[in-house]
Design goal:
The chain has helices at residues 23-34, 82-91, 150-161, 207-216, and strands spanning 13-20, 37-38, 49-53, 56-63, 72-78, 95-103, 107-113, 119-125, 140-147, 164-167, 175-178, 185-189, 197-203, 220-228, 231-237, 243-248. It is an alpha+beta fold and 253 residues long. The strands form two sheets. The protein has an eight-stranded mixed beta sheet, with helices on one face. An eight-stranded mixed beta sheet has the order 10-11-12-9-13-16-15-14, covered by helices on one side. Helix 2 runs antiparallel to helix 3 (150-161).
Length: 253
């Protein structure tokens, strides 16, 4: 089980959370789907809770800050200096929606948007360092963005986080991004009918069984399961319309 309990390097997608219109129902849905337990309710943090996979932090969930907003998963990038990163966001043409906000001893959060309006977050770690389990069923395995203008987005995120990019063979217009030599996520263009913006991909043991469970619980399939060299992949929406993706590792040769 890949785990980590120290702050992630700057620019790494280090945390994900979900703004839920119905917190108990969302906990039941995702807990059953991904094998999560939950930390105790936290009135001091607005009812925000952490999802635990085998005792390790996997994601966050809380009530929608704006009841009129659509439920969604947010990708947070690690930063050692939230204020300085906000300055780079503005200089590159983005918008800081929620200024750096200390969350008790846990850390400092920011909500921002790139120049094309795609929302993302920053997390400056304190006691809470982000995801502690990753790359396996029930945990975060990938974050990528579907944007209208990939070239402009690559320029923006390079200015903010120092990303470099590498084309993925056989996937037209899609690049991985990195701050060193390890790919951290992906960025590409939009597809008709597919969700836009930053997407969260969870590892699952069986993509087909996960799809069936989502449909049985009232969710929908946006992109039917398909095999890729990286694994069996599907795009889904939960019962409240929030998009997420799932990936089953390819069978061993």
């Amino acid at each position: 089980m890949p785990t980590r309990d120290t702050p992630w390097p700057d620019g790494t997608p280090c945390w994900i959370d979900y703004g839920a219109p119905d917190v108990p129902a969302a906990k039941a849905f995702y807990g059953s789907l991904l094998g999560w337990d939950w930390t105790a309710d936290s009135p001091e943090f607005g009812g925000y809770v952490n999802a635990l996979k085998d005792g390790h932090q996997a994601a966050g969930l809380g009530p929608l800050m704006d009841p009129s907003a659509s439920p969604s998963w947010t990708t947070y990038f690690a930063t050692g200096d939230a204020a300085a990163t906000c300055d780079r966001i503005r200089q590159a043409g983005g918008t800081v929606v929620v200024e750096p906000m200390e969350v008790g001893p846990m850390g400092t959060m920011v909500v921002a948007a790139d120049p094309q309006g795609n929302a993302f977050g920053l997390w400056q770690a304190g006691a809470h360092t982000g995801v502690q389990v990753y790359g396996e069923p029930g945990s975060l395995v990938w974050n990528d963005a579907a944007v209208d203008d990939p070239a402009a987005a690559r320029e923006f995120y390079a200015a903010v986080f120092g990303f470099t990019y590498e084309e993925v063979p056989g996937v037209e217009g899609y690049t991985t991004f990195a701050t060193a030599d390890r790919p951290l996520g992906g960025l590409g263009g939009t597809s008709p009918g597919a969700p836009k913006g930053w997407a969260t991909c969870f590892g699952v043991s069986s993509t087909d069984e996960t799809v069936a469970a989502v449909e049985a619980a009232g969710g929908k399939v946006t992109m039917a399961p398909m095999d890729t060299e990286f694994g069996r992949f599907a795009v889904l929406t939960d019962p409240w319309g929030a998009a997420f993706t799932v990936m089953q590792e390819p069978a061993a040769a």
